[in-house]
Automatic annotation (TrEMBL), chains A, B:
Pfam families, alphabetized: MerR_1 (PF13411)
Keyword Membrane attributed: no
Gene: cadR
Protein species of origin: Halomonas sulfidivorans
Keyword set includes Magnesium: no
The entry's keywords: DNA-binding
Stretches assigned to the HTH merR-type domain: 1-69
Lineage of producing organism: Bacteria, Pseudomonadati, Pseudomonadota, Gammaproteobacteria, Oceanospirillales
InterPro entries the record matches: CadR-PbrR, DNA-bd_dom_put_sf, MerR-type_HTH_dom, MerR_fam
Protein name as it appears in the record: Cd(II)/Pb(II)-responsive transcriptional regulator
DNA sequence: ATTGACCTTATAGTAGCTTTATAGTTTTAA
DNA sequence: TTAAAACTATAAAGCTACTATAAGGTCAAT
């Protein structure tokens, strides 16, 4: 299987595959005589694992960490679960921050109707005055 | 006022100030004979405006846009409000996406207690199987 | 023979800074 | 007075996770 087929199979771009290889996330495949990469089905599974981790918002470093656990399959999996717990709490704090931000933005927006000149715009005034008791 | 004092006043690093100047967000100040930048109070206000916009999650490009409106104070402020509306809807869609992600992560996490070997870890199995019916 | 689709590597660009390197200037302490 | 500490300057690289571009080699079909 060449790189284009693998890319289509998993739904990524070929450059992304080369990038993962370069980053040490995907093992380097064998090469044909002409230098073309030849992938196995196992590569497809590895790549799909990486993509699903990315969809879950894990960083490449975190994926690397998960892979290192997989290399040692008889260890207890507490570290895996801890990684996920950390990620969940990270996502939750992002949500909280964004919700606070939304509130702030909506209240700022409410300070202006559209029928003013820039000079008198409530939004710009709100930002400039800086009564942003955030955090 | 030199760059260090301005930085302390507004609560940013000196490099950030130089960066904003380079990006055209902060007007270049006068220089002393030795080349040191000399800032006015007005620079402090401009910089504070930029920082508050950043805290609100606006991109440098959006800040640039707001500044261009401020340069033309007798235009109607509809564009300012539209920019904020766009940003609010952007923030809202981020929140929605993160909430869906959190759900997915929590359910994945529930598939494993800590008392297993990596080989049998429910979390890793969940990612590998890829029954992630997302989006 | 040449077009088109595919593959290769290397390099630069994205956002918003932060870090590092190297060097000159000013202030302060001994 | 001098030497160190603290400040300033510029330029360039690093960060994340790719994406895009350039310049070229390979292969099948026409």
């Amino acid at each position: 299987m060449r790189i284009g087929q693998l890319a289509q199979l998993v739904g990524v771009e070929t450059q992304t595959i080369r990038f993962y290889e370069q980053q040490g996330l995907l093992p380097p495949p064998d090469r044909q005589d002409n230098g073309y990469r030849v992938y196995t089905e196992k590569h497809g599974e590895w790549l799909a694992f990486i993509r699903r981790c990315r969809i879950l918002g894990l960083s490449l470093a975190e994926i690397h960490e998960l892979q290192s656990y997989q290399d040692d399959p008889h260890q207890p999996c507490t570290a895996v679960n801890a990684l996920l717990d950390d990620h969940i709490s990270h996502v939750r704090s992002q949500i909280t921050a964004l919700q606070a931000l939304e509130k702030q933005l909506v209240s700022l927006r409410a300070s202006c109707n559209d029928d003013r000149e820039v000079e008198a715009c409530g939004v710009l005034a709100g930002i400039s005055e800086g009564n942003m008791h955030q955090q």
